[in-house]
Amino acid sequence: MNKQMSSTRITMVIGITVLLLLAGCAPTTSLTQISAFGAGTSSIAENSKKAFELIDSSTIDRKMYDVAANPSLFPEDATFDGLFKGTDGKKQLQLRLAVLENLGSYAKALEKLATADFRKDIDAASADLYGALSGLNSTYKKATDKDLPLKDDQLRVIAAVVDAIGTAIVESKRRDAIKTIIIQADDAVQDAAKLLEADFGKGSEISKFVQTNLVNAGGSLRTAYNIQKAAPDSTFNLRYEMLVKIRQMHDAAETILLLFDSISASAKKVREAHSSLKSTVTRDKFSSAELAKQMGELVSYAKSVNSFYKKLGTTNK
To answer: For 198-250, how does the pLDDT look when each residue is reduced to its tens digit (9 = 90+)?
Structure first.
């Protein structure tokens, strides 16, 4: 009897061991690279937007100094308008920044979906995802007068697969959802990123427009300084403060083309990274050496854009 029980136990142990070994040998699917794509892309979008907001505030400062330095001038509504109001060039810049922002929001929502622990987080990620992709469609249309290859029925497919993840978050269904989202959204991501890659290059019309604006702003500040230094009530502190602003505008004009080039290169890397994601998940894999390389490069580009933003922030203090 004891021998029979011992034999049964040995059989059970062997069986459990085999199951554990099989589980260990089964292909694992990591969502780490999905998170890296989301974090890198959203960082590029957020820091690009912040950089242009700093430049925007600099142009407003310049106009305010013009008025403050010349008693014959009066403040008008246009005095407080920055880069994002008025001419066609400003409108083009604003629309492309909106495309970039929506692209970043899509990536961030994808990251949320990959890391969500509770159903409410899945629902929030789903809402963000739908909003980002719908917004991407809208802003791309306004910027180019063309439609992205992302239709309403594809958005409905995306919504359905996210909903299928379930209340308890079934991992296999989460991976199926992410796979479907990446495949369905890839053409739209490619087109949007190509637009930004071309239009944010340092030789582009938009980059020239912004640099010209900053150079002119610097010239206006110099003129205002010359008027102020000749004024009877001119003081050292006031002249020094104006010189600081002139230096800031000069530094911004010197840096802006490099910022544009960095954003353009980052948009290209977003496109390449998303293409690698599509290739990987199509094969039901969520991690690979090539994908890891692409995500590492994407994070490096994100750091590059962030460094330019920080530099502009330093010059605008």
So the answer is: 988 888 888 888 888 888 888 888 988 888 888 888 899 989 988 988 888 88
Residues 214, 253: contact at Cβ < 8 Å?
Answer: yes
Does pTM surpass 0.90?
Answer: no
HEC assignment per residue over the chain: CHHHHHHHHHHHHHHHHHHHHHHHHCCCCCCHHHHHHHHHHHHHHHHHHHHHHHHHHHHHHHHHHHHHHCCCCCCCHHHHCCCCCCCHHHHHHHHHHHHHHHHHHHHHHHHHHHHCCCHHHHHHHHHHHHHHHHHHHHHHHHHHCCCCCCCHHHHHHHHHHHHCCCCCCCHHHHHHHHHHHHHHHHHHHHHHHHHHHHHCCCCCHHHHHHHHHHHHHHHHHHHHHHHHHCCCCCCHHHHHHHHHHHHHHHHHHHHHHHHHHHHHHHHHHHHHHHHHHHHHHHCCCCCCHHHHHHHHHHHHHHHHHHHHHHHHHHHCC
pLDDT at 213: 81
pLDDT at 182 over 90: yes
Query: What number of other Cβ atoms are within 10 A of residue 223's Cβ?
Result: 14
